[in-house]
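seq as requested:
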Amino acid sequence: MRVEFYGKPAANPLVRLSWTDAQGKHHKQERNLPALTGDMQPRLIQARVKAGEEGVERLTWMMPADFAKDDYDQWLHLEGQDQVDRNLFSVEQARGQLHWLEQMHSAGIYRDEISYPHLRQIAIEFDLPLAPTAVPETPAPREFVTFAVPAPATPRP
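struct tokens:
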């Protein structure tokens, strides 16, 4: 496996994968990661601290998501790729992105990104839309994701 990182200007990040499977068949996948539009602004709903402990144990943010599962290939049959990339957001996608950020931090990459002194964990509570058949008084379904926050590599004031 070969991983390359390029630092050239682009409209947004892009993930481009190509591989050959065990049967010798070549595969390619590409996925744009543009900034999301719409009501995607996270809202801080909790700051957890422990008596006698320095810093913040966890900050919890509430954020809307369109779907729990990432059905990207299926969505492409219904909408154009640009529309899907810019407007549909799933919890599974967010969970994957946070997982890989943790992996990069562990490998010593991007140690100053989403890393804060005196903060142990960030949690995101995703607010999902009600099913079309749900009774209006039904509470919205939610999914919960946590992320271990490392101290930054570069000291900050």
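The chain has a mean pLDDT of 83.
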